[in-house]
Design a protein that fits this description.
168 residues, alpha+beta, TATA-Binding Protein, 2 domains, two-stranded antiparallel sheet, 26% helix, 22% strand
């Protein structure tokens, strides 16, 4: 990954963000996850890296890193959040924040989840006794990450998606 990031087209990415990407990628690979390298993208940024469990017939992406003009964004995908409530409630603030902050509440008129309990984008869960209803289309994004914390994000993912084929 380090060699890829040294390409001239990624000069807009700060060294701090490159350091995080390299550390996160190393942790994901050690945990047994794969990616297809850095790919062009247009929706949430110029480029993306997508992580998935190997060996599945269809790739279910569990994490993406988006390269934007002024920052990178780590977006994690979660299902069955209530099942992992205890872990989240005990987590460090920067891990817990996207679960409990006021962002991406499922209440805007254009949100597919309003008044629709069967919306596939609706994430409903309880943390610290508070009910949260969020739109999963844009939830669970992390900003301004530090390389030394990369393993904590991977630990969170492996709590939700244990990889039985983990490397040692």
């Amino acid at each position: 990954m380090e060699k890829l990031l040294s390409d001239e087209k990624y000069t807009f990415v700060s060294q701090r963000d490159k350091d995080f990407i390299i550390a996160f990628n190393d942790c994901m690979v050690r945990a047994g996850y794969e990616n297809n390298g850095i790919q062009p993208y247009v929706v949430f940024g110029k480029y993306k890296i997508e992580y998935y469990k190997p060996g599945n017939k269809t790739k279910k992406y569990i994490a993406r890193i988006y390269f934007r003009d002024d920052e990178i964004v780590l977006r994690l995908y979660f299902s069955n959040i209530d099942k992992h409530r205890g872990y989240i409630e005990k987590s460090i603030d920067y891990i817990k924040k996207p679960f409990i902050d006021g962002s991406h509440r499922c209440e805007k008129p254009n949100c597919k989840g309003v008044g629709n309990d069967k919306c596939r984008y609706r994430k409903t869960y309880t943390i610290d006794g508070v009910l949260y209803i969020k739109c999963a289309e844009q939830s669970f994004c992390f900003y301004q990450m530090d390389a030394e914390n990369a393993s904590k994000y991977v630990e969170l993912l492996t709590t939700f998606y244990p990889n039985r084929k983990r490397a040692v």
